[in-house]
Amino acid sequence: MAAHRDGRGTEHVDAVVVGSGFGGSVAAYRLAQAGLSVVVLERGRAYPPGSFPRSPAEMKRAFWDPHQGLQGLFDVWRFNGFSSVVSSGLGGGSLIYANVLLRKDERWFVRDDPLPGGGYETWPITRADLDPHYDAVEAMLTPAPYPFREPAYSVTPKTAELREAAAKLHLKFELPPLAVSFAPAPGAPPGLGLPIAPAEYGNVHGLPRQTCRLCGECDIGCNDGAKNTLDHTYLSAAAHHDADIRTRCEVRAIRRGLSGGYEVSYVHHDPSYEGHKVAPGTLPQRHITCDRLILAAGTYGTTLLLLRSRAELPGLSDALGTRFCGNGDLLTFLLPGRGAAPALLRASRGPVITAAVRVSDGADGGEGRGYYVQDGGYPAFVDWLAEYSGGGRVRLLLRAADFAIRWLYAQTTRSADTGLSSAISGLLSDGTLSSGSLPLLGMGRDIPDGVMRLRDGRLDVRWSTRTSMEYFQRVRATMRAIADELGASYIDNPVWFSWFVRRIITVHPLGGAPMGDGPHEGVCDANGEVFDHPDLYVLDGAAMPGPVGPNPSLTIAAFADRACTRMLERVPA
């Protein structure tokens, strides 16, 4: 259904969806499929296959700060005690995530779990509530475990080594479901770089896709279209049902409508502005009204909008800005050890994540708070950076000096036998550092006691690792044990472990507008509807009242699917 103009000439639709990540894309599809007129406002641009940045010049422009002329993919936030990386583009976080779609563990939907400093972590929904919606999301995103037993994929050493280490340590090992096309069609055998059969609903980009080539570029955007990202799936299906998807449209304000519903103000980031500074407040604002407003701009974007809208949305819960956490994210590294020959891990071979180790929670028979440890990866070109960084630079200089001496000797003696071929070969490393290195990714049930507030009009988050230190130390202990089994050296992320400050980097920020049983503990209810503001919904990571534990994308999408089911039950026939 198309938008229409109201009595004031303002564009009006049944639903506006702010953001196109795991909550927004699901909502756009479900509501458009039901016949509602839907407009999706996404601040970033579309990224068809082949358009993700790769060169240094492209990467320099691949960040999000439109006031400085940057309209790129990566939005980096820095707060006191931690930093965070999120995405700006059509498909939201799916563009740069590592594809893992794990369901939240049944017993990790805790209720009245005490928090340091007072209060409780309480989930007003259960695993049983979400299971049918997990099914629905999986049917759309078609996740599959890494096909490790197939010949083309069995040469992924990091998967095999993590499995063996887990077995020796008596840890639960699994190949988690990945939203990646390894096969050209459902039921077909997997293969590298094969054409993917188009979906019946088409594709918003109108370009061909091919199966995973194991290039390790998942987290910087898949130029093959092998990832089943939200633009290729939910958003394409939403567009098929006439959803109006608008990119480069950043929402700046929301308010109650004069005659009910909501009014949304947004600006358009024209491509001609790229590379040029744009003073705040200089872009003209556009307006659209709607009967239903779905906020899915991500944990930071949604919470910031609500904090800035307190005056226009009177009665918002005092819980706004609470229950922030980083989903227990911890990044560490394994490097080739000294003495025994290190395992050849080849982190650049395969998708970024192929395998996971799960450590139980006190709620399900373990001790303390549960977590996952997953193998990491990176693009193949990072192998070169690894070899010639840090101590590798010293070795490179020595080899370069040897080459220069040989070359000068050849020039001065005009010798026909200088051995320059071996000298050139000697300039190159044997690859021990890169082939034996492996990032490890930890995530789990940290403490959701962070607070998000406005400070001089900007988002400020007060959260530290202090109350979660016992959790983080347990994760680090497991990672160290894995390193020992692999004959590798373990190192913390340099920004985490220092004398002056302990910082983490999270790619899974959660909370800020948490769901709860009532406005005394949450901003929205178990259906994502904001208390005392009918038809205003929070359907993204901001609604999570605590850590999901595993990678949160699937749970956010299932939560949004469930909320849309409840929402549509109230739509007049």
UniProtKB/TrEMBL annotation:
Cofactor(s) demanded: FAD
Sequence ranges assigned to domain Glucose-methanol-choline oxidoreductase N-terminal in this UniProt record: 211-309
One GO BP annotation of this record: cholesterol metabolic process
Listed name of the protein: Cholesterol oxidase
Matching InterPro entries: Cholesterol_Oxidase, FAD/NAD-bd_sf, GMC_OxRdtase_N, GMC_OxRtase_C
Chain segments annotated as transmembrane: none
Protein's UniProt keywords contain Iron: no
Sorted UniProt keywords: Cholesterol metabolism, FAD, Flavoprotein, Isomerase, Lipid metabolism, Oxidoreductase, Steroid metabolism, Sterol metabolism
Domain Glucose-methanol-choline oxidoreductase C-terminal: 506-560
Pfam family, one: GMC_oxred_N
EC number(s) stated in the UniProt entry for this protein: 1.1.3.6, 5.3.3.1
One Gene Ontology MF term: steroid Delta-isomerase activity
UniProt organism field: Planobispora siamensis
Organism lineage: Bacteria, Bacillati, Actinomycetota, Actinomycetes, Streptosporangiales
Pathway: Steroid metabolism; cholesterol degradation
Domain of life: Bacteria
Family of the protein in this entry: Belongs to the GMC oxidoreductase family.
PANTHER family linked: CHOLESTEROL OXIDASE (PTHR47470), FAD-DEPENDENT OXIDOREDUCTASE 2 FAD BINDING DOMAIN-CONTAINING PROTEIN (PTHR47470:SF1)
